[in-house]
Design goal:
The protein has one domain: Ammonium transporter fold (Orthogonal Bundle), CATH 1.10.3430. Helix 4 packs parallel to helix 7, helix 5 packs antiparallel against helix 7 and helix 13 runs antiparallel to helix 14. It has 17 helices and no strands. By secondary structure, the protein is mainly alpha-helical.
Length: 415
Amino acid sequence: MDGATTAWLLVCSALVIFMTPGLAFFYSGMDRSRNSLNMLMMNFWSLLVVPLVWAVLGYSLAFGGSGSLLGNLDSAFLSGTGIGADQGESLVWLVYLGAFAAITPALISGAVADRMKFSAWAVFVPLWSLLVYVPVTFWIYGGTDADGALTGWLATRGSLDFAGGTAIHVNAGIAALAAVVVLGRRKGWPSEGHPPHSMPLVMIGTAILLFGWFGFNSGAGGLTDGVAIQAFANTFLAAAAGGFAWALTERVKDGHFTNLGVASGMVAGLVAITPAAGFVSGMSPIWIGLAAGVVCAFAVGLKFSAGFDDSLDVVGVHMVGGLVGSLLIGLFANPGALGDFEAGLLNGGGAGLLLEQFIANAVTIVFSFAVTFAILKVLDLTMGIRASEDDELTGLDVSQHAETAYNLAESTMAR
């Protein structure tokens, strides 16, 4: 790496790391006030424990070796990643990719809000990272042969995922569905409403996520080149298109433009452009963002008809948004200046890429759901994963953390 590339990837690493606190604010504001600290803690826990797991085992298993299913242990316990080994190149990648690994299980926390024991979450996060995130990541991005080509089996088939639509958003989104199936519904859902307790926190979290996402997508190519510029522009346009489309959809459906709709739509647009950011150009990111905004706005309502209590709409935004963006690569992929890959249907390619996108996401959905379900079932049988009814009614801030986000009694007395 030259100095400019190293500096850019370090900046991108910091941006992606900052996204996990942003997600914490986003989810915490959407949650009820009595559980807002618990939601912050669930997200920050991912930022605490996943980097450690990543350094010890995850990075080596997700990217090492030249196999097709899983990496090796050559880089375990930070072996070969010091400044003296390769002038720090592997260390830069370990940090950058570790930031992705940290935010992925944090996405799941929004689905299990209000009812999961924190002790169970604390154990679930490292297990899920190693047993689900690492294998899927290797299949799509991991392993290199003597010529530097990827050897993960989904990559060799030809599927494309620039910055984590399949490996991160679809993966975490379907895991969230498995989690709510095992956990069951919150008390009073769906008859009781559960509106966000702080929209300002939601909007602050959205702003941080938008800011961090430029590092998420623009750094994924590993170079300071035209692809990074295109990914940056695509991220900006898709976020705007997603928020705009959701806002208009909400206005037509319900008669209102809401801050929550704008925030959710921007995130949906960002999720959808993530797999495609370095593979599309021109108007494509706008079409992808518009599609995600509309589709996800309707998808979040499916939980009521299907009966699964996805508290903060992780399935509807992240799994569905990731699928929209990943599948639309099969239509809009535009090689040439952006690289050597198969063109989408609308750019002179055949249906092969679209089929590979479908296969990669289908495999991820089946694997992630099954293994997540198994992990949570084992945890439920051994330590229990559901907070007691009294704890749920009291609030997880007090019952799990002995803290409160807002000291309303003191505020009342002061007045």
